[in-house]
């Protein structure tokens, strides 16, 4: 009898979670770390995409299962990326994933699966068909370049889009790709040294791999002492002064030094 009660309890708990799955137990928002400021459509076809999934458990119970990210096309079979998820009640978690979006892909759909039960579609994202290349900015909100963002956009090549990398609101830390392939769509990164310094070890490692394979960075320094910091020397080696603007100096780094 005791065993039967335990089994009934497990079945009841699973049934409750199954019912909640159908009622959108998870709220999922999808963002591209390099989303252009003036374009629409989250996915860049024929490229590696650094995607950020903000997942919130809207229920009163812990949800354990997998997030399923399905890239779908009318012409090719669905490709599924699986990410384990264990989320306490009413908590929110950021899940970052670098995915290659094939040219023939039409959309990305997100589901949550636990056991044999799958939720309704939690998110849907379409293509950014105007994608050509990205110049990405990692700058404080008050920085002069961000204040003149649209004037900057008018000056860059028409085939290139401008994007602003996100900054975590609570910590002030940048949110950067954790795999070098996530940087592959970026033609140039413009970043202040203090913000770049807040990147964690995995983010710095991915960025360094990108630089070593030809990635280019413009570092904005407030003073010469910032260039002498050990992590700057370890990541980029000697830096070349290329211009001076107001109270900030600009230096460049690339795979060829």
Topology:
Blueprint: H1 2-22, E1 26-32, E2 47-57, E3 63-72, E4 79-87, E5 92-101, E6 107-114, E7 117-118, E8 123-125, E9 134-138, H2 144-147, H3 149-153, E10 161-164, E11 186-192, H4 193-196, H5 201-212, E12 217-221, H6 230-236, E13 240-245, E14 248-253
Parallel strand pairs: 9-10, 9-11, 11-12
Antiparallel strand pairs: 1-2, 2-5, 3-4, 3-6, 6-7, 6-8, 12-14, 13-14
Question: Can you walk through the features of this model?
Answer:
The radius of gyration is 22 Å and the shape is globular. Strand 3 (63-72) and strand 4 form a beta hairpin. The protein has helices at residues 2-22, 144-147, 149-153, 193-196, 201-212, 230-236, and strands spanning 26-32, 47-57, 63-72, 79-87, 92-101, 107-114, 117-118, 123-125, 134-138, 161-164, 186-192, 217-221, 240-245, 248-253. The chain is an alpha+beta fold.
Q: What's the overall geometry?
A: globular
Strand content: 35-45%
The helix fraction, in percent, is 10-25%
Question: How far apart are the termini?
Answer: 73 Å
Secondary-structure element series: HEEEEEEEEEHHEEHHEHEE
Low-confidence stretches: 1-14, 246-251
Q: Give the count of helical stretches.
A: 6
Mean pLDDT: 80
Query: How many DSSP E strands?
Result: 14
**Cα Rg:** 22 Å
- Let me know the largest β-sheet: 6 strands, mixed
| Backbone structural class | alpha+beta
Biggest sheet, strands in spatial order? 10-9-11-12-14-13
